[in-house]
Amino acid sequence: MNLLHARVPAGTADTAPMVAARVDLLSSGAYRPLADALAKVASEHVQDGLIIDAGAGTGYYLAHVLDAVPAAYGLALDVSAVALRRAARAHARAGAAVWNLWEPWPVAGSSASLILNVFAPRNAAQFHRVLTADGLLVVATPNPGHLRELGDLVISVDGAKDARLEETLGERFARVDRLEVTQRVTLSAAQIRQVVEMGPSAHHLHRDGRRERLDAITGPADVTTSFGVALYRPVP
Ligand SMILES: C[S@@+](CC[C@H](N)C(=O)[O-])C[C@H]1O[C@@H](n2cnc3c(N)ncnc32)[C@H](O)[C@@H]1O
Prior knowledge:
By secondary structure, the chain is α/β, with parallel strands linked by helices. It has one domain: Vaccinia Virus protein VP39 (Rossmann fold), CATH 3.40.50. Helix content is 31%, strand content 29%. A seven-stranded mixed β-sheet has the order 3-2-1-4-5-7-6, with helices on both faces. Strand 1, helix 3 and strand 2 form a beta-alpha-beta unit. It starts with 15 loop residues before the first helix and ends with a strand. The chain binds S-adenosylmethionine. S-adenosylmethionine binds next to helix 3. The site of S-adenosylmethionine has 23 residues, from helix 3.
């Protein structure tokens, strides 16, 4: 469902090549530990109701979470119509709507038992309006050191990211827990290309010979993937 022919600045929505790279990388299982961690958190805290994935991309994480909470149904929101076409087919209990997260969401207040936000924009006011009073907000972010072996081929995560997350959510939310999901994985040359091309680093490949250096990688490499999963309750 495209509720909006979204007017957002160029470069906001994931493009078709980014989505294609993300589909391939995620289907390889490289980020499966994060999906498992999110599914476990959801199954421990939520029995049913609406689960919204804000900035859902292809719906990969939402589908894993819905598998873990069989009585819940899901809604994927994302401004990328290309990604949302995937998300609409990601799970039998999920719908999908193209939407700009910075606009008031097309969802009733106090309607969601869980909001999932994985590497996507965070609209604290809408999170707070849409969550039930006892709902849970789950925010996944990359940690400093994530993909560090790839150097400047990926945008590095600065040490202040977690503090900025706290600042963004401000007084509307209280953090109740934080998990770390860190592992070493061996990525093939194709997967290294996908991991670079599926995110914002794709926009910087024309600089400093990065495209040439990426293309010169022909063998596998061991890399670190590291994510934080922070859990929040709304403050009344
Ligand atoms: C790094 S991707 C993460 C996608 C998904 N959560 C995942 O991890 O596979 C960020 C997503 O946020 C979406 N996005 C960026 N700005 C947005 C906005 N203002 N409103 C809705 N979605 C937005 C992009 O289209 C993209 O799908």
